[in-house]
């Protein structure tokens, strides 16, 4: 399995070229894929806001899910993807975490730090049916989209400066107690591992945006590697 986190693809940063080149490389293998959120710098899955890069990604996923499982966790830079694009993926979720049938938990991570009250309030304000209605039907929609874009940059500034290890480890212990054995977390744009004596592990994954790294996960025996996507060409 290959897991991709926090690519923040956009035309403005001109990283869409390498991202779609990577997808072309992935087309040549049959490994399952999980996109762990914030794949785009902003993706509002509504007719007035989707760009060609969103449509191109959706078309690629619909085609490739014929040959493999493709999961998608909705991140804090993505809106209404789960509501509108469910058929694009094998599975997708906007919940705080998602657990598969083999006791692996996938987490975008933006809802993990419950002490980050400012961001959690912002998320509740913007990820709801009323905001979706305003964006889709009213003239003020584009202005609201700008509010979302700027709001993401202003929220949780203090909490983005450090990795909340205690919150992460508390979350991990709760999931392990429920039967999970491996947890993958995105969002924090840094790499970290929490490993218990019973070999149950949580991995905070490197972001694709600044490192171009993906996570390669082998289940049996369990092995996790972080590699530059270019190495997938071999």
What does this structure look like?
- With 234 residues, the protein is of the alpha/beta class.
- It has a single domain, classed as Purple Acid Phosphatase, chain A, domain 2.
- The chain has helices at 16-26, 52-64, 81-84, 117-126, 129-137, 141-154, 165-177, 208-211, and strands at 2-4, 33-35, 43-44, 70-73, 78-79, 91-93, 98-99, 104-107, 182-185, 192-195, 201-204, 213-218, 223-228.
- The radius of gyration is 17 Å and the shape is globular.
- β-strand amount: 15-25%
Instruction: Give me the CATH fold name.
Output: Purple Acid Phosphatase, chain A, domain 2
Radius of gyration, in Å, reads 17 Å
Largest sheet: 6 strands, mixed
Separation of the first and last Cα atoms: 16 Å
The topology string of helices and strands comes to: EHEEHEEHEEEHHHHEEEHEE
Coarse structural class: alpha/beta
CATH class: Alpha Beta
Task: Name some characteristics of this structure.
234 residues, alpha/beta, globular, 20% strand, 33% helix, Purple Acid Phosphatase, chain A, domain 2, five-stranded mixed beta sheet, single chain, six-stranded mixed beta sheet
Please describe the topology of this protein.
Blueprint (H helix, E strand, L loop, with lengths): L1 E3 L11 H11 L6 E3 L7 E2 L7 H13 L5 E4 L4 E2 L1 H4 L6 E3 L4 E2 L4 E4 L9 H10 L2 H9 L3 H14 L10 H13 L4 E4 L6 E4 L5 E4 L3 H4 L1 E6 L4 E6 L6
Parallel strand pairs: 1-2, 2-4, 3-5, 4-6, 8-9, 9-11
Antiparallel strand pairs: 1-12, 7-8, 10-11, 12-13
């Amino acid at each position: 399995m290959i897991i991709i986190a926090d690519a923040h693809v956009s035309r403005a940063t001109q990283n869409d070229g390498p991202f779609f080149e990577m997808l072309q490389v992935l087309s040549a293998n049959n490994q399952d894929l999980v996109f762990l959120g914030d794949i785009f710098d902003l993706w509002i899955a509504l007719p007035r806001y989707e760009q060609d890069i969103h449509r191109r990604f959706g078309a690629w996923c619909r085609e490739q899910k014929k040959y493999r499982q493709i999961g998608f966790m909705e991140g804090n830079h993505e809106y209404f993807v789960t509501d509108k694009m469910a058929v694009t993926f094998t599975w997708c979720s906007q919940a705080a975490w998602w657990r598969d049938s083999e006791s692996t938990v996938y987490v975008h991570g933006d809802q993990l730090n419950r002490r980050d009250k400012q961001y959690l309030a912002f998320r509740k304000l913007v990820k709801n049916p009323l905001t979706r209605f305003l964006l889709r039907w009213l003239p003020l929609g584009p202005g609201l989209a700008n509010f979302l874009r700027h709001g993401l940059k202003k929220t949780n500034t203090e909490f983005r400066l450090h990795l909340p290890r205690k919150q992460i480890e508390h979350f991990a212990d709760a999931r392990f107690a429920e039967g999970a054995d491996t947890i993958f977390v995105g969002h924090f744009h840094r790499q970290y591992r929490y490993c218990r004596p019973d070999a149950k592990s949580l991995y905070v994954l490197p972001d694709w945006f600044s490192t171009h790294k993906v996570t390669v996960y082998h289940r049996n025996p369990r092995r996790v590697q972080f590699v530059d996507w270019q190495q997938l060409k071999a």
